[in-house]
Specification:
This protein is α/β, with parallel strands linked by helices and 256 residues long. It has an eight-stranded mixed beta sheet with strand order 8-7-6-9-10-12-11-13.
Length: 256
């Protein structure tokens, strides 16, 4: 299952292909590296642990306000995050994806619903798209998972990029970032994020077994008590089935 290379703005983009292993379908960009996955019998659930952790922002966001809030994904992958926000959380969703082949794959093979009043996929360079005035201050949950076909390092990982991300967020908004990468420097990436948001706003998960290190950043820094976080985690598990109580065992603020 392979699609030909496509081009956008004269840029040659990697081919999009797929594999299946039992009950799971995987998305690849011309290599063995997994760029996303889907349970064949549960297409709107989340299979990968690190993707579940990308929803750590639910620990801080008022649960009564999740429905109808605005979630933005930079990097569509297999559409897992967008589908969960749209179908399970009932949010308004915007996904920004550079590669038209990825969008075609998500719609054809990974059950991504068509655009409607609550769902919009924008084919664009995320670095440029997020600088548009229409998005500024409108995003409640920004989820950043931008990797090339080699999964070697984040495609966008500069101080300017993270400053633009901060400008997207509402006052109670959060950003989660996947910092997985064989050649990336976690410490350097976190330093850039801190420069944009302030160290007090940054929280971090321990890496998963696969090496995905999820960093969470608040637009407005806060320090909920352990009891408050546990209460929120229990509600997340009950409402949306994510293993949030386990998150608290591997999740802490960066600043002591």
């Amino acid at each position: 299952m392979t699609r030909k290379k496509s081009s956008a703005s004269s840029l040659e983009l990697p081919e999009v292909n797929f594999s299946e292993d039992g009950e799971i379908r995987y998305l690849h960009l011309g290599t063995e590296w997994i760029q996303g996955s889907m349970f064949l019998d549960r297409p709107f659930d989340i299979e990968l642990e690190y993707v579940q952790r990308m929803f750590g922002w639910l620990l801080f966001f008022p649960h009564a306000e999740v429905k109808g809030a605005h979630a933005m994904q930079l990097g569509l992958g297999a559409g897992t995050i967008t589908k969960f926000c749209y179908k399970k959380l009932k949010m308004t969703c915007t996904a920004v994806e550079l590669n038209p082949g990825v969008l075609h794959a998500c719609r054809g093979w990974f059950r991504l619903p068509p655009d409607d009043a609550r769902l919009r996929v924008v084919l664009a360079d995320a670095a440029l798209e997020i600088q548009k005035d229409e998005w500024r201050g409108t995003v409640d949950a920004l989820q950043v998972d931008l990797y090339d076909e080699e999964a070697a390092a984040p495609v966008l990982d500069t101080p300017d990029f993270y400053r633009h991300c901060r400008e997207l967020l509402s006052l109670q908004g959060c950003m989660t970032v996947n910092l997985f990468g064989r050649s990336s420097s976690y410490a350097e990436s976190v330093e850039k994020i801190c420069a944009a948001f302030g160290e007090d706003a940054v929280w971090a998960f321990k890496p998963t077994r696969e090496g995905n290190a999820i960093v969470l950043v608040q637009r407005t820094a806060s320090r909920p008590s352990r009891d408050a976080l546990q209460k929120a985690a229990s509600a997340i598990e009950e409402k949306w089935g994510l293993p949030a109580s386990k998150w608290l065992q591997v999740f802490k603020p960066l600043a002591k």
